[in-house]
Amino acid sequence: MLIPPQRAAGTLLVPNKLQNIVKPAFPSHTISLSGLNLQIKMVTKTEESQLQQLENQVENGGGGAWEYLSLVRKLKVRRSDKVLKHGLTLLNDPKKRSALGPEEWSLYEQVAIAALDCQCHEVAKDCIKVLQKKFSDSKRVGELEALLLEAKGSWAEAEKAYSSLLEDNALDQVISMRRVAMAKARGDTLVAIDRLNKYLEIFMADHDAWRELAEIYVSLQMYKQAAFCYEELILSQPMIPLHHLAYADVLYTIGGLENLQTAKKYYASTIELTGGKNIRALYGICLCIYAISQVTKGKNTEDRKISVDAAAVLHKDYMRSSPEKLALATLVLKTMRI
């Protein structure tokens, strides 16, 4: 569907069947442009309640679309279909659009990114054209142009655009990570690894990048390299249980007595950090103790007690939440001689 040439100035293409367009076009990494972010962010219960209340109000025709869109941008939550739907409603109404004042341009940017996320490339192109006209030399608009090329699968052109932007600012984290995401999307995993390693030489405190690199290494069965990444994450974020759990998983996969004993400790720290509620860690510690006993050909009374306690917690949890799976869980634990 093309935009009619005779449309009024500022009118955007409205896609049909908005409810069916939520098909993210980008790889899973963050798309962030100076405060706009598509990665799901942890929000408080109060914020989530406020957002849901506003969303219901807007969806039911009660107004407040701009307030809702502003809150989505502030909280950096991913609501691309809603942003596209209600953002277009505001932008296609000249009166409402002009009432926004300078915030009109923020909305164009927000809608452009939402449109890209929903694969509505024509809508994104329209928004970017408006921004180009207003801010002809803006690097921020240049980033949007490169994102559009990437979304359309024009890899060579997108690569050229990103490289040009990096020439102006070699320390642009967003663009650097977009190049990583693009390499992954093309299937160039080794290129993605190389770019991530170079990125982390400069931005060593980027936890998301370390986690991204670790996951790539795991997908390639490069477990020792993945373990190094998780060690960096644990050093910088020692209270995040998922880092402990992922590290323990990798060490258990590598195997060997020393790695198994270390994995057991990190499964234990995961259990402690989660108040004994992480099922994977409970199974993990049981598996480690069983594997250690197979290697050492001996019995450790303390380890035996730990595995029995973990099995009891698992049994109680299955009884409470999934009684239909209790028999299977019991069978699995029996194979570990618990």
Notes on the protein architecture:
- With 338 residues, this protein is mainly α.
- It is built from 17 helices and 2 strands.
- The chain has 2 domains: 6-152, Serine Threonine Protein Phosphatase 5, Tetratricopeptide repeat (Alpha Horseshoe); 239-338.
- The protein has helices at 45-59, 65-75, 80-91, 94-99, 103-117, 121-134, 139-151, 155-168, 173-186, 189-202, 207-219, 223-236, 241-254, 257-273, 279-296, 301-321, 326-335, and strands at 32-33, 36-37.
- Helix 10 (189-202) packs antiparallel against helix 11.
- Residues 1-11 and 13-40 have low confidence and may be disordered.
Q: What is the compact description of this entry?
A:
By secondary structure, the protein is mainly alpha-helical. Helix content is 70%, strand content 1%.
Question: Order of strands across the widest beta sheet?
Answer: 1-2
What is the domain tally? 2
Instruction: Assign the CATH topology of the largest domain.
Output: Serine Threonine Protein Phosphatase 5, Tetratricopeptide repeat
The string of secondary-structure elements, in order, is EEHHHHHHHHHHHHHHHHH
CA radius of gyration is 25 Å
Fraction of residues in H or I helices:
55-70%
Morphology: globular
- The number of helical elements comes to 17
CATH class placement of the largest domain: Mainly Alpha
Largest sheet: 2 strands, antiparallel
Low-pLDDT residue spans: 1-11, 13-40
Number of strands: 2
Mean pLDDT over the residues: 88
The percent range for strand residues is: under 5%
Oligomer: single chain
CATH architecture of the largest domain: Alpha Horseshoe
Protein name: ER membrane protein complex subunit 2
Family: Belongs to the EMC2 family.
Membrane topology: Peripheral membrane protein
Keywords: Endoplasmic reticulum, Membrane, Repeat, TPR repeat
